[in-house]
Amino acid sequence: MHNCAVAVKTPESIENLIQNADGVIHAALADERYDLAAELANRVYRACGKTNGKKFRKQALERRKYVQELALKWKKVEEARAKLEIAPDDPQANLTLGEFLCFAQGDWQQGLAYLAKSSDGELKELARRENSSPPSDANEQVKLGDAWWDLAQSRKGEEKAALTIRAGYWYEQALPKMVGGLAKSRIEKRMKEHVAVAKESLLQNPWKKAVNKWQVLFCSADPRIWNSEVNQGKKRFAVPVSNAPESMKYLRMRNERGGSVIIELSKDQLLKQFVGTTWGWNGSLGNRWKGYHLGIYNKAWPSRKRGRIHVQSKRHFLGWGFGHIQLVDTGQGYTWAGQTIPPTVFEISVTADDLSATEETFLLKAQGSNKALKESAHKVGKTSGRELVQEENVALASNGTTVSGNFINVNPSSDMIDGKTETNLRGIHYAAGKLPAEWIVTFKEGYRLREIRLKLWDGDKRFYRYAIATSGNGRKYVPLVDRSQGEWRGWQVLIFPKPRKVKFVKILGLHNSAGPHFHVIEFEAYCVPSKR
């Protein structure tokens, strides 16, 4: 696209560039590549600056301004996410992220939690009211809808439209339960004259093109509520699978730590044990060995090993979701990518839309045989955007990772990326540097990371303090955690709220309660976290 923007000279070629650029910019926005979209829009505008591009200049200028505004908004959202990683109660960051999720993306299920801690008193009060006790009675639903409606009247633009739609959400819940009368007529009039108009005004919202297309059917750590009507907050929610769109194409499972996997599935298969060529879906909720079964399994991962979690109730296949614990009669099991994990909230959602390029990386595909599973989220060398996704720990010297900084010769940097995690009192297999220590971990590629693990030396009762930031280019670092307060010992598990491109990790050793050095036994980084 860059070369095309430079080469175009005739009016026809400039017009073709604009038409082609629209599709590329749209795709970049859909994949949340706002910086790329802004760069493309700017290049198109510059191409229109040529003599033959005069009649297209105004259109290109408007597009550039529009996309640059989106990129700026997105930057603020990303900054808010980063701020909340180290200060989860920051009112302004909660407001920024909450407004983005609720107003721009229409994701009220997640966004309300942030608005409930925001700096906007009116939004905060209503969000807390809705989160604490979502009403089921028609009268109470109308009252909550009226509260959102009244707040909308004091706001403008996109915010007013979003608040009006939220009022309509609660009106829609109440209307089927209401008998005729003035109250029902008032609500029906608002739905027709105002809510419908607000929805129409947001149809072209660019933030919604790749977001909010997934319909959540289940979100809980309790598989028993699958295919039922439960609304007790965002971590205990379910609706009957009959609510799924008739033309659904895909099912997605996510866990609260950020993992995601997608399969092709039709609506009539949701409550069945459906077997694909190399993977399967179990929606039957069968109970065996005191464990309910719900999730995706991989036929290329058979295992009879004691203690493994089997998502398929009658065969020994590993996967993602809920299952029984093999040869152990101890109750419900939880698993992700074949690994046993602690009790976890899983989300199951479906869509009738096509997948974005990013979502395609998490789609399980069959390629000829059971052993030819193309599981993009777990195979080494598969890219997600421009970032590499790899299954195992990527922070190993054997994988090309290096560490630079001030280290003691007898405790070199290589000891923290050698894959050895045991604590050794003689000082072997851990890295050490004089406080304050600043170390830079450099990966051979830019990885799309979801989790970092750090094992501090734990041979006695001492504690440490530290901070970690990450960067994709080595110039601008984004904070991951600030643990300059408190007492930190042993394994540190640091989870990204959203996958982040990382090539450099800065570790700042700040304090050791028992000496002048900072000690790290092992440093690990994961695109696909597994259970330790």
Features:
globular, seven-stranded antiparallel sheet, disordered N terminus, 4 domains, alpha+beta, 11 helices, 532 residues
Describe this structure in a few short sentences.
This protein has 532 residues and is of the alpha+beta class. It is 30% helix and 29% strand. The chain has helices spanning 2-7, 11-30, 34-47, 57-86, 91-104, 108-115, 121-132, 138-152, 157-174, 182-201, 357-360; strands at residues 215-220, 230-231, 236-238, 250-255, 260-264, 273-275, 279-282, 287-288, 291-292, 294-302, 309-310, 317-325, 332-336, 339-340, 346-351, 364-365, 374-375, 382-384, 387-389, 402-405, 431-434, 437-456, 464-471, 478-488, 491-512, 517-526.
Report the oligomer. Answer: single chain
Radius of gyration: 26 Å
Give the low-confidence spans: 1-7, 367-387
Shape, principal axes of CA atoms: globular
Sheet with the most strands, sense and barrel status: 7 strands, antiparallel
User: Considering DSSP H and I runs of 4 or more, what fraction of the residues is helical?
Assistant: 25-40%
Extended strand count:
26
Q: How many independent structural domains?
A: 4
Give the overall average pLDDT: 80
- How much β-strand is present in the residues? 25-35%
Query: With helices defined by DSSP (H or I, 4 residues minimum), what is the helix count?
Result: 11
Cα distance spanning the termini: 45 Å
Structural class designation: alpha+beta
Question: How would the blueprint of this fold be written?
Answer:
Blueprint: H1 2-7, H2 11-30, H3 34-47, H4 57-86, H5 91-104, H6 108-115, H7 121-132, H8 138-152, H9 157-174, H10 182-201, E1 215-220, E2 230-231, E3 236-238, E4 250-255, E5 260-264, E6 273-275, E7 279-282, E8 287-288, E9 291-292, E10 294-302, E11 309-310, E12 317-325, E13 332-336, E14 339-340, E15 346-351, H11 357-360, E16 364-365, E17 374-375, E18 382-384, E19 387-389, E20 402-405, E21 431-434, E22 437-456, E23 464-471, E24 478-488, E25 491-512, E26 517-526
Antiparallel strand pairs: 1-3, 1-15, 2-3, 4-5, 4-15, 6-7, 7-10, 8-9, 10-12, 11-12, 12-13, 13-14, 16-17, 18-19, 20-22, 21-26, 22-25, 22-26, 23-24, 23-25
Helix pairs in contact: 2-3, 3-4, 4-5, 5-6, 5-9, 7-8, 8-9, 9-10
